[in-house]
Write a structure and sequence with these properties.
The complex is a heterodimer of chains A (490) and B (1028). With 490 residues, chain A is mostly helical. Chain A contains 19 helices and 6 strands. Chain A has a single domain, classed as Serine Threonine Protein Phosphatase 5, Tetratricopeptide repeat, CATH 1.25.40. In chain A, the strands form 3 sheets. Chain A has a two-stranded antiparallel sheet with strand order 1-5. In chain A, α2 runs parallel beside α5 and α16 (403-414) runs antiparallel to α17. The longest helix of chain A has 30 residues, at 2-31. The radius of gyration of chain A is 27 Å and the shape is globular. Chain B is mainly beta. Classes of the chains: A mainly alpha (490), B mainly beta (1028). The interface between A and B is large, with 88 and 88 residues.
């Protein structure tokens, strides 16, 4: 009897152990899949993400901390003012800007490009739209840093490239233009239902607007080459002019960020460190009685428009009465203010510049110039009579003696609040003129008083992609903020 | 007639001599008469045997007269008894004074004689952790065990500690040792804030109640820990909790301790110059207050000479030094800890039990930072049948912590605020002016980072609740004397609820809108194992073999809700916020393992152990998810072989160990997925891809280690020396390598790199004096441990392991692990600084500036007993090692540090050569611009790298054991009272005014960075123990 009991007990134990192991084997299979995410997705969700990143990017650190101050739109308070002093001690910022640009738009649009060419999910129309977003994403990166990884950039997942080689800005620009041309060709005959009917936050899948958008971006890139490759620049401009371009504010590429506290400029305007409008901008608007003054600038506590001088030394800053200078205007910096990537106003002004540069046609240039000003004012909902008044003023007419500068200054105004583009525009054209800082009350920074020309590659990038980054520095010039990028000849 | 009777009795005796009979009896401990459990009772030369039960009873059948019965038990002298007519024996075993301490708990809770082990083990007794009691039991081990490095953060009550055993072996792993409580591996996660703020929510080990600890074993190398598989790769800390034992008296023990915490070390502040810049006052704004922004709200104004001025509130005041030079001493208060514990225990023939309750209350040096914790524990065991016993434990811990202090750059870090506030500001004014009529915070500086510390005390806070359950059920089935099976299942379950909030009115809190955050979640580790053990002894050859299997499951889930823009004041629930966000995540991982262990002993002087184990982990790709390890350990007692006189060389042992251990990773790193972003207002679906690239062909990482050592005892073990040399190479490390952002991603999980970790450990114990009334024990321990990065991934020059401002700890091939890199000054070929025409130095290259690893560290313990008084002292030492203090950097360029007085009036002539002329620099620069430019604008780290060398008087305890005569008729069996002090002061501190342990987190490289940490503290108190 006892023996039988023992045998039963042993069998039970043995069976128990066996069951335990079998259960474990199956159990492990169940634990393999990540329950917090999905393994397949409609590329539309990633496309929307990339597009949104692109627009939110116009208020990113590169724009708000650096470009807005470099381009003399405003001056930030406290230690946020250091870039305005032309300093370069921003290794961490350079790194987060670099990583942020690739990790936002590029990471997601590269995946869309993969999915829209992969078997089973391939879609030419979506692919063409995605290329346009990719072009805008890469253009900003190369404009900020110069030579950057492009052909191998953003391929960490798709091609397992962990240390991508750098491409020259020249080759990048040429390819960007090509990609836009291809996209335009495809979109012209595309079936809209194959696009992003419910996932396009810019034009709600209106492909004719997408064609204008792509063509306008191409025009911007073409003009960027004006001083470095005039042949390609002119040929591309002519190509652009033969296709529809953005013409009215209805064609503008904008988005309103609604999540959280909305437009980042809202919190920046009132938060810390506060931002005060530059006297360069206020003087320009006041001097020409430009009605956009009330749009771009708020009055201070005394009801005055009072601008802040860029580049003051710490000592001079102390007595600058910073706190009582003008804030940014509410139309730029409210929670529901629009974020712009490219506008019709910019396109008219690019065309005005092209008419002068390539057609030697000051008459059309003047027409296009006035159209640009008018469109910009429409964009900010300036009242019609005020527009008429301004268009009658000398500032709204090219007189023939200073046309390039007039166009350049109007472009600088029209690009507000796309401050990063404003900085690129000044770097390319030299307008508005930002004088070299020589007086004692102005900081000379790391550039001897010259407006910075690029961002530095970060020490993290130099450590994690050493060979390729070093090669780029050897080709492009010292890793300094006063080393101009390829297209920057002024 | 009488003679006949005698004859008959004699015949009867001689008849029984040849007959088999049954002998029963009892085994007691000599002197105490305590029954001894589990004593082996064997008939010599046979394998007939039995063992004693809970009451010390045994029964042995089939014994003949003149058989020799051997009574043996670990820790006692073996005794032999020859069988005679007496069939009921009482045997008293004498404690083996030399061997008593040598019984150690090893892997899988197997008790072993220390001399049979081929690896290094240190055991710490309960006294050492529960006399000078610490909230976090791990801190009590600091300085006591060679190879163990514990860094206690100053992060408020219930803060976490950094724990390393034999240094760092993996680049990405936590490197924290496994902690096993009563055979169940528990959660051992770290804690801490970040450079940018946050709070330290403590680590999983702070819940172990020191009052319940019976002993702690530290298994140092992988050789010791291979039985735990990958979990034991960083060593194992085995904690054995108390079980019920039979005691004299009722069996109630009471332990009460109270100690106060006071601020011990604070930065050196200057008290001569007040707010302003360039030696002048700040301009006055239209609102009548001075400019409260960089640089005017810093302490670079005029000398404070009682002149009239407008203070930060816009009031007319006298510009004079503060009455106290140290704002920390004015702001922080004394804290306290009160812990009471009562335990009831008993033991009977059939089983034992112990019930204990502990109540613990603490208040930190910030008055509203409190801890309130209760621990309930029940332990019971029962001998259900002769062959079948069960043992079980349930521990429930509930704790509430309020207002954990914000750390680092956090806008609520009081230490940061106090250390940077201009020196003319009166703390009274700050306390009395927290909110203006609009309900907005009144600040002394506009910057979000710098706030009114009293505003934060009143209007921002956090509340943590944590409930934890730990328990196990274990059964043992003794099939026969040689073969038994144990099965055990245990769980460590944590449920937590963390809320934090900031009232409306501070720009730092959601831009003035107020914010709320609520995290809740649970985590569970469940281990179940079964182990079959067979023991055999053939002649002089002993063998124990075990086969086992374990299943381990780790699961966790968390839920977060957060909101901003509050509707009504002083109400912290999500419904009160206009914007709300939420997120959730779950994670689960499983590992099952099979293993075999064998122990061979020969002649009592040669031992060999081997382990082989196979794990399957759900975190690795299916094709690579099985991995093997093994370990071999050997121990030779050469003193026994050579027959050396034990009075001279009482112990002579050589040991060696080799182990190969594999390791898995965290869940879901081998799968590419898309996240669906939570959006509230967008009419679109947003999908996103994580910045961390998965690896589809991940393999387990491998760690190979070996150690050799010797344990020597001289003069009857009055001198004992243990030395060990070890080396560990970890290859194919699984790590998320930070990769160039231009890949589109921030990191990639790969197998790469090799770290070599090697070092020496030594422990020397001395008994200089020993008599009945007086004994002096001395202990020294020494550890030198170095980790070197042999390779990283091909083409990868560096992996950043953490950074603060622009200093970072990086792993670079060929360099020591934990090297701190930062910007140096620009220098010429002779190392001279190159100075610009403005008299300021320039930024140079990023170079290695220091290393976190000490050259060596160790401890010194002394225990002097005179009659009933015992004085124990612990001194810990760290020599070498550096850290980067951005806290000091801040105080320097804000002008509050005493060091910032240099050159205030005269300016500073930087030593170096002019960049254009090459001549020695003669340009005078302002002291303010020098500090600001070097540290902030040029991000130069060189001057902020600080030597971490220190010697600290860590523990002093004076204990009085009440003599029995005093306790007669009180019902008290024994009693003791101790006066204790912990972390009393530095005997030497190369950092001067900073505590080198002042880190904000407890990760492996956390000691590299200090940023405005809370002041370090010292404790004094009393501890009373009563046994009824």
């Amino acid at each position: 009897m006892k023996n039988i009991q023992k045998t039963i007990r042993k069998t039970v134990v043995a069976l128990g152990i066996l069951l335990l192991f079998v259960a474990c084997e199956n159990h492990l299979e169940d634990l393999y899949d990540n329950p917090n995410a999905v393994t397949t997705i409609d590329d539309a969700a990633l496309f929307t993400n990339a597009v949104r990143s692109l627009f939110i990017g116009t208020s990113d650190n590169a724009s708000s901390h650096f470009a807005g101050q470099h381009a003399h739109y405003y001056v930030a308070g406290s230690t946020w003012r250091a870039p305005d002093q032309y300093g370069d001690g921003f290794d961490g910022d350079y790194n987060s800007i670099f990583n942020g640009l690739y990790g936002g738009t590029i990471r997601h649009i590269e995946e869309v490009l993969e999915l829209t060419t992969a078997e089973g999910t391939s879609n030419k129309v979506r692919n063409a739209m995605a290329h346009i977003i990719a072009v805008l994403g890469y253009a900003k990166i190369t404009d900020a840093f110069g030579d950057v990884p492009y052909t191998e950039g953003g391929k960490g997942k798709s091609q397992n490239i962990v240390q991508p080689k750098y491409d020259t800005q020249e080759s990048i620009y040429k390819d960007l233009i090509l990609r836009l041309t291809n996209s335009i060709t495809i979109l012209k005959t595309a079936d809209p239902t194959m696009g992003y009917p419910n996932s396009d936050p810019i034009f709600n899948n209106d492909l004719s607007k997408w064609i204008r958008f792509a063509n306008s971006v191409r025009l911007r890139l073409a003009m960027r080459l004006r001083y470095v490759d005039p042949g390609l620049s002119e040929a591309t401009v002519n190509q652009c002019l033969s296709q529809p371009l953005m013409e009215t504010t209805a064609h503008d590429a904008f988005m309103i960020e609604t999540e959280g506290t909305g437009n980042a400029w809202f919190t920046r305007r009132t938060g810390f460190p506060s931002v005060k409008v530059s006297n360069t901008l206020i003087d320009q608007l006041q001097g020409t009685e430009d009605p956009r003054l009330a749009v771009f600038v708020s009055t201070n506590g005394n009801g005055d428009y009072s601008g802040m001088v860029n580049g003051l030394t710490d000592q001079a800053f102390g007595s600058s009465d910073f706190a009582n200078r003008s804030d940014m205007g509410l139309p730029l910096a409210s929670p529901d203010s629009k974020l712009y990537v490219i506008t019709a106003a910019e396109v008219w002004l690019l065309r005005a510049e092209a008419a002068l540069a390539y057609d030697n046609d000051p008459v059309s240039a003047n027409t296009l110039y006035r159209k640009g000003i008018e469109t910009s004012m429409n964009q900010w909902e300036v009242a019609a009579p005020e527009i008429t008044t301004f268009l009658a003023s000398p500032a709204a007419t090219l007189a023939g003696n200073n046309d390039e500068e007039q166009i350049g200054v109007q472009m600088w105004l029209a690009l507000t609040p796309n401050f990063f583009e404003g900085w690129s525009h000044i770097r390319r054209t030299g307008y508005p003129m930002i004088p070299i800082r020589t007086t004692d009350n102005l900081s000379k920074g790391a550039t001897n008083g010259i407006m910075p020309h690029r961002f530095n590659y970060s020490s993290f990038e130099l450590g994690s992609n050493t060979t390729n980054a070093t090669e780029a520095i050897n080709r492009q010039g010292a890793n300094k903020i006063d080393t101009p990028v390829w297209w920057d000849k002024n | 007639m009488k003679k006949i009777i005698i004859l008959l009795v004699a015949i009867g005796f001689s008849m029984t001599t040849n007959a088999q009979k049954t002998i029963s009896g009892k085994v007691l401990e000599k002197d105490t008469n305590t029954p001894l459990l589990g004593v082996s009772v064997m008939v010599k030369g046979t394998n007939k045997g039995a063992s004693t039960d809970f009451d010390g009873n045994f029964q042995l059948q089939g014994v003949q007269n003149e058989d020799i019965i051997v009574f043996s038990s670990l820790g006692y002298l073996t005794q032999e008894v020859t069988v005679d007519a007496n069939t009921n024996l009482t045997v008293w075993l004498e404690v083996n004074a030399q061997k008593m301490e040598e019984v150690v708990v090893t892997a899988l809770n197997i008790q072993r004689d220390k001399e049979s082990l081929g690896y290094s083990v240190s055991q710490v007794s309960s006294e050492e952790v529960n006399v000078a009691r610490e909230n976090n039991v791990m801190n009590s081990l600091s300085g006591k065990v060679s190879g163990l490095q514990i860094t206690q953060n100053n992060t408020g009550v219930d803060g976490s500690s950094r724990i390393l055993l034999r240094g760092i072996t993996t680049i990405n792993g936590s490197n924290r040792p496994l902690v096993v409580v009563d055979g169940i591996p528990i959660s051992n996660g770290g804690g801490g804030g970040s450079a940018w703020g946050g709070v330290d929510r403590g680590d999983a080990l702070s819940d172990i109640n020191p009052d319940n600890v019976a002993s702690i074993s530290v298994l140092k190398g992988a050789g010791a820990a291979a039985a735990y598989g990958s979990l034991g790769m960083n060593g194992v800390i085995l904690i054995t909790t108390k079980t019920g034992i039979k005691k004299e008296g009722v069996g109630i023990s009471f332990n009460s301790s109270f100690n106060t915490t006071e601020v011990a070390l604070t930065p050196d502040f200057q008290n001569e110059y007040g707010s302003g810049a360039f030696g002048a006052f700040a301009p006055i704004n239209a609102d009548g207050r001075p400019v409260l922004d960089y640089p005017f709200s810093w302490s670079w104004g005029p000398k404070m000479e009682r002149q009239p001025y407008t203070n930060w509130l816009g009031q007319q005041a006298t510009f004079s030094p503060n009455s106290s030079a140290d704002p920390y001493k004015d702001f922080y208060q004394n804290g306290y800890t009160l812990a009471n514990s009562i335990a009831f225990e008993g033991q009977s023939e059939k089983g034992s039990f112990r019930i204990a309750i502990t109540d613990e209350n603490s208040q930190g040096i910030i008055a509203n930072n409190t801890l309130d914790k209760q621990t309930f524990s029940i332990r019971g065991s029962s001998q259900l049948t002769e062959n079948f016993s069960v043992d079980g434990k349930m521990t429930y811990i509930t704790s509430k912590v309020k207002n954990r202090p914000q750390l680092g750059e956090g806008s609520g870090n009081t230490a940061l605020q106090l250390s940077l506030m201009p020196r003319d500001i009166r703390l009274n004014d700050v306390a009395n002016n927290t909110i203006n009529t609009n309900g907005e915070e009144i600040k002394w500086n506009l910057d979000n980072t710098f706030n009114n510390p009293y505003w934060a005390l009143d209007n921002a806070g956090n509340f943590d609740g944590k409930d934890r359950f730990q328990g196990f059920i274990s059964t043992k089935w003794k099939i026969n004397n040689a073969f038994n099976i144990t099965a055990k299942s245990g769980v460590d379950y944590i449920s937590y609820d963390y809320t934090s909030f900031g009232e409306r009115g501070a720009v730092a809190v959601s831009n003035g809108l107020g914010s709320y955050n609520h995290d809740s979640g649970k985590s569970r580790i469940w281990n179940s194992d079964i182990l079959a053990t067979y023991t055999a002894k053939i002649a002089d050859f002993n063998f124990t073999g075990s086969l086992g299997s374990t299943y381990r499951n780790e699961s966790s889930s968390s839920l977060n809700i957060s909101g901003n823009d509050s509707k009504t004041p002083n109400f912290y629930r999500i419904s009160n916020y206009k914007n709300s966000f939420s997120s959730e995540s779950i994670s689960e991982k499983g590992i099952y393992s099979y293993y075999a262990l064998g122990q061979f002993g020969y002649g009592g002087y040669l031992y060999f152990d081997a382990t082989i184990r196979n794990d399957h982990s759900s975190t690795l790709p299916k094709e690579n998810n099985s991995y093997w390890y093994h370990s071999e350990n050997m121990s030779i007692l050469f003193s026994k072989i050579l027959g050396i006189n034990p009075n001279i060389l009482s112990q002579g042992k050589l040991r060696g160990s080799y182990a190969k251990v594999g390791n898995d990773t965290s869940p879901y790193r081998t799968q590419a997925v898309y996240n669906i972003d939570q959006t509230v207002t967008l009419p679109y679906t947003i999908g996103s891809i994580s910045g961390s690239l998965p690896s589809f062909d991940l393999k387990p990482e491998t760690s190979e280690s070996w150690e050799i050592g010797a344990d020597l005892g001289f003069l009857n073990n009055r001198i004992q020396l243990d030395v060990t040399y070890y080396q560990t190479n970890t290859t194919d490390q699984i790590m998320a390598v930070p990769i160039s952002g231009s890949t589109g991603y921030s990191s990639k999980v790969i197998n790469a790199g090799e770290i070599e970790n090697k070092g020496y450990e030594a422990q020397l114990n001395l008994i200089p004096f020993e008599s009945d009334n007086f004994q002096w024990d001395l202990g020294f321990n020494f550890t030198k441990s170095n980790s070197k990065v042999i390779t990283l991934n091909q083409g990868l020059e560096s992996i950043s392991l953490g950074s603060l401002w622009t200093a970072s700890v990086e792993a670079r091939p060929g360099q020591e692990f934990g090297t701190i890199y930062g910007n140096d000054f620009l220098r010429d070929n002779f190392g001279r600084k190159i100075i610009g025409n403005d008299g300021l130095a320039k930024r140079g290259d990023r170079v290695a500036l220091g290393n976190i690893n000490p050259d060596w560290y160790g401890g010194f313990t002394s225990k002097i007993r005179y009659k009933n008084l015992t004085l124990s002292t612990l001194i810990s030492a760290q020599v070498g090692g550096e850290y980067y203090s951005y806290g000091r950097g801040y105080r320097l360029f804000f002008g509050t540090d005493q060091r910032s007085l240099v050159g205030r009036e005269t300016g500073i002539i930087e030593e170096g050569i002019n960049e254009h002329t090459g001549f020695t620099n003669e340009v005078v620069a302002s002291a303010f611009l020098k500090q600001f430019t070097d540290i902030f604008a040029n991000e130069i780290a060189t001057d902020l790298i600080i030597d971490a060398t220190n010697v600290k008087l860590r523990e002093v305890a004076l204990t009085f054991d009440f003599p029995k005569t005093m306790l007669r008729n009180t019902g008290i069996q024994s009693a003791s009272i101790s006066a204790i002090g912990r972390n009393l002061f530095f005997l030497y501190n190369a950092s001067g005014d900073i505590d080198p342990e002042g880190s904000y987190s407890s990760g492996p490289t956390s000691t590299a960075f200090e940023h405005s940490s809370l002041p370090s503290t010292r404790n004094y108190g009393v501890n009373l123990k009563l046994n009824f």
